[in-house]
Design goal:
Helices cover about 45% and strands about 20% of the residues. The chain contains five helices and four strands. Helix 3 runs antiparallel to helix 5. With about 150 residues, the chain is an alpha+beta fold. The protein binds zinc ion (ZN).
Length: about 150
């Protein structure tokens, strides 16, 4: 279990150091700001849609390693997905974090996102991990802002 935890840490640190899709999209179809007042994480999400498909998704902002890594992993996961598929991913990820810390996470199913399952041990950090995901939901619903409070 400790080896797995180390691997998870490595994935999070890597995405924090070199966040994927960390940039603005010039003419986004929609965007939203996410704010987590407990930790001070602030993230802006940009989405470019092609019909029902997410052609591009990116983010910018300031935040802790967890919030940044989660946003980075999320953009990788959602890029190229249809809106219906994306909605499922959002629900599945939030559901995974809402489960008890002892519930095993299907690593094959979640891939690198499983690395964030460690935050279940630290309830205050769950909001860091879900911030970007809430922001994407807000953007797709036409709301400009999402707050974890
Ligand atoms: Zn945070």
């Amino acid at each position: 279990m400790n080896e797995l935890f180390d691997l998870y840490q490595e994935i999070i640190l890597d995405h924090n150091r070199r966040p994927r899709n960390y940039r603005a999209i010039a003419e986004p179809t929609c965007s939203a700001d996410g704010y987590n007042p407990i930790c001070g994480d602030e993230i802006r999400i940009f989405l470019k849609l092609d019909g029902e498909k997410i052609e591009d998704v990116s983010f910018q902002g300031q935040g802790c390693a967890i919030s940044k890594a989660s946003a980075s992993l999320m953009t990788v996961k959602l890029k190229g997905k249809t809106l219906i598929e994306a909605e499922k991913e959002l629900k599945r990820f939030q559901g995974m974090l809402a489960e008890g810390e002892d519930k095993e996470v299907d690593i094959l199913d979640f891939g690198d996102l499983a690395s964030l399952s460690g935050v279940r041990r630290f309830p205050a950090r769950i909001k860091c991990a879900t911030l970007a995901w809430h922001a994407v939901e807000a953007a797709l619903q036409g709301k400009g802002q999402a707050s974890t409070e």
